[in-house]
Amino acid sequence: xxxxxxxxxxxxxxxxxxxxxxxxxxxxxxxxxxxxxxxxxxxxxxxxxxxxxxxxxxxxxxxxxxxxxxxxxxxxxxxxxxxxxxxxxxxxxxxxxxxxxxxxxxxxxxxxxxxxxxxxxxxxxxxxxxxxxxxxxxxxxxxxxxxxxxxxxxxxxxxxxxxxxxxxxxxxxxxxxxxxxxxxxxxxxxxxxxxxxxxxxxxxxxxxxxxxxxxxxxxxxxxxxxxxxxxxxxxxxxxxxxxxxxxxxxxxxxxxxxxxxxxxxxxxxxxxxxxxxxxxxxxxxxxxxxxxxxxxxxxxxxxxxxxxxxxxxxxxxxxxxxxxxxxxxxxxxxxxxxxxxxx
Length: 343
Description:
Blueprint: H1 2-24, E1 34-49, E2 54-59, E3 66-67, E4 72-76, H2 79-104, H3 108-139, H4 146-175, H5 179-204, E5 207-209, E6 214-219, E7 226-227, E8 232-249, E9 261-266, E10 272-280, E11 285-286, E12 300-308, E13 320-326, H6 327-331
Antiparallel strand pairs: 1-8, 1-13, 2-4, 2-7, 3-6, 4-5, 6-8, 8-12, 9-10, 9-13, 10-12, 11-12
Helix pairs in contact: 2-5, 3-4
């Protein structure tokens, strides 16, 4: 009887030791050539929105549809934006005509007309001066009224002013357009061209396309709704890069470096995904509650991102996976894979 009790006690001790070992380690240390960790799959999500506001006229995809890069899946009513483009185009044409006019200067016909006007005003001045001279002579003899004399004086002065203005106009035409006026016209044209380009960009922004291959997760807005600029219309799950996040314990930190190859397995299939360590956090943190146990609550770990090199539709957001870090393969790797800096 005592022998049975001893055996039972020994079995309890062994079970407790195994339980303690399992609770204090995320990985198995049986195989020194690798480290085993558990993690979850992370997919990048993008909240898609228009850069302009307006009434949604089309939504061309349903939730769960696969979208390729550049595929248009939503549109805003374009008519108001096309009108703005037409208005900006007309303003640009007008500014262009003004600039050409300033750059080319006056036409020969305009200069000839201005010179003819000078001759006309000279003749008018001669007539006005003769009339004034007669009235000046007659007013002393009381042969003309004072008011008649004043009228002839006023007409002479007005004729002089008109001639002076006409001669100044000829001088301006002969000198051509001022450099400042040409530069002002050039600036006005540049401003009109920028306004036209802005209107065209706004018109093109009425179409919403997928930035990368991905799956349409949610449709936030529907046809007929008024969407403001920056308002989320749909959420896209991108498929170009898939990550797995694990938490490496401090004793293993020196064995895990960017570029270290890994194998990833799921519970749903026997397929082995290949990947590599893309990033190890420089800051320690406490074991997250999603993986902590009573004995791990004070342990420090380092958040590590594993990049899946051959992802497919079998990996889903939040899916638990097993990650095997291949230490022997890491020793033969001399450098980080090309492009890893951006991961």
